[in-house]
Amino acid sequence: MFCPSCGKEIPEGATFCPNCGATVRKASSPANSPNSQLTFPGIINKSKMNIFGIIASVVLLLSSFLPFVSVDVFGSSLSASLMDGPDGIIVIIVAIAGIVFSLLGIDIATIIAGAVAMIIFFVENAQVSEATGDDEFGALAAAMIDKGPGYYFLLLGSICLIIAGIIRFIQKKKS
């Protein structure tokens, strides 16, 4: 058991920390409480929503390397990932920030990271749509473009990161 104030180890069942004198609230069993959190000495706070945010951030990270779109023409296929442009680096930075914010339990920053990833998704989607054009050749080009796993990973990761931050924010407000 660790002191919630100074992070030093204290005897099991103690009501006061022998190091800093802070009052230690006796917690219910972590397995039985719905908002169970394991607090480690230092700054890392581990809860189910933090893990969900980390997984969402890893999905975002993977979206940078997976094919975002592919074009099939006469049996040949050409794929492009986010790493083929500057957006791949931005998504990697956002994903790493999402991991850090989720580990630290910073809700608003986690939501913002997810929103930035969602904006990147919409920008990339608009660029793909713009590249096809509005004429009959654009319709033919659009028919040849397939969305790859990177497209869906970016969408899923950004939505899940926003949800993780919102749920954790609501949980903190209730407690």
Which keywords apply here?
about 180 residues, three-stranded antiparallel sheet, 5 strands, Butyryl-CoA Dehydrogenase, subunit A, domain 3, 5 helices, 2 domains
Q: Strand arrangement, largest sheet?
A: 4-3-5
- Distance between the ends: 21 Å
Strand percentage lies at: 5-15%
The overall pLDDT, averaged over residues, is: 80
Task: Supply Rg.
Answer: 22 Å
3D shape:
elongated
Instruction: Report the order of strands and helices.
Output: EEHEEHHHEH
Q: How many domains, as an integer? A: 2
Strand tally, please?
5
> The CATH topology of the largest domain is what?
Butyryl-CoA Dehydrogenase, subunit A, domain 3
* SS class: alpha+beta
Q: What is the name of the CATH architecture of the largest domain?
A: Up-down Bundle
What's the CATH class label of the largest domain?
Answer: Mainly Alpha
Ranges with pLDDT <50 over ≥5 residues?
Answer: 27-44
Helical fraction: 40-55%
**DSSP helix count?**
5
Taking the sheet with the most strands, its summary is:
3 strands, antiparallel
Keywords: Membrane, Transmembrane, Transmembrane helix
Domain Zinc-ribbon: 2-23
Protein name: Zinc-ribbon domain-containing protein
InterPro entries: Zinc_ribbon_dom
Provide structural commentary.
This is Zinc-ribbon domain-containing protein. Keywords: Membrane, Transmembrane, Transmembrane helix. The structure is a single chain. The protein is of the alpha+beta class and about 180 residues long. The chain has two domains: about 1-35, no CATH class; about 45-175, Butyryl-CoA Dehydrogenase, subunit A, domain 3, CATH 1.20.140.150. A three-stranded antiparallel β-sheet has the order 4-3-5. Strands 1-2 form a two-stranded antiparallel ribbon. It is about 55% helix and about 15% strand.
